[in-house]
Amino acid sequence: MSENDENTELAKRIADAANETAIWREGQNAYRSAGLNASNPYMANSAQASLWQSGYQNAQEMAKDRSLAWDR
């Protein structure tokens, strides 16, 4: 594999990681803005749906951790 091919592959991997991060953050933002009424915009059983759901669940868990002790 040439150096140019390696650079191209690395750039693709970086772009893929940025895209995955953006989808994960979409899930977080959906929970923060719509709470339990948020719906996953991605096709069920897709990689994007899983990433979105993971971000959504993370935001949900973080909100529980910030709740007041007497609300638990």
Oligomer: single chain
Number of helices, counting only DSSP H or I runs of 4 residues or more: 2
Q: What is the alpha-carbon Rg in Å?
A: 17 Å
What is the rounded distance between the termini?
Answer: 56 Å
Residue stretches low in confidence (pLDDT < 50, at least 5 long) are: none
Q: Would you list the SSEs in sequence order as H and E?
A: HH
Please tell me what the overall shape is.
elongated
* Structural class category: mainly alpha
Can you count the beta strands? 0
Average pLDDT confidence is: 91
The major β-sheet equals: none
Tally of discrete structural domains: 1
Strand content: under 5%
Q: Helix amount, in percent?
A: over 70%
3D structure, described in words:
The protein is an all-alpha fold. 71% of the residues lie in helices and 0% in strands. The chain is built from two helices and no strands. Helix 1 crosses helix 2. The chain is elongated, with a radius of gyration of 17 Å. InterPro entries: Ribosome_modulation_factor.
